[in-house]
Amino acid sequence: MAKAKRASKSTAQRIGKRIRQFRAALGLTQAQLAEQLEMDDMTISRFETGLRAPSLDQLERLSAIFNVSISHFVDENDESSLVHGRELESMLKSLTKEQQGFVIDFVRAYVAVHGNNPGSGQRKLGKSK
Predict the structure, then answer these.
(1) pTM recorded for the entire structure
(2) Where does the record place the HTH cro/C1-type domain (predicted)?
(3) In sequence order, what are the residues at sequence separation of 6 or more whose Cβ sits closer than 8 angstroms to the Cβ of residue 35?
(4) Could you state, in order of their start, the residue ranges of all structural domains in the chain?
């Protein structure tokens, strides 16, 4: 029977980076995440630093906590938009329905004016146009 292949160091580091980003986006400490997973917080630290890769079962449990698919841990595409999306979702959930509606209307208006042009509408802090 063939032995299971271990994740490469770069894969473990990429997965660890994603775990850290998702955990931070939810405002969880390593200890809080470890408690939800019923494991030691040092294990979470090892995951996040890439010293150890989580098992498939552990990835499934992490996926459920972070509400993402397993592919989000290993996909090499830019993860910043996903993390920003989760951060925005978290912020929206803290608002009233009326406030959420205002924010959504504002974003729609912003996109209608600026579209998807990179850098459009961005300003440097402390400087006016």
Answers:
(1) 0.57
(2) 19-73
(3) none
(4) 9-74, 80-114
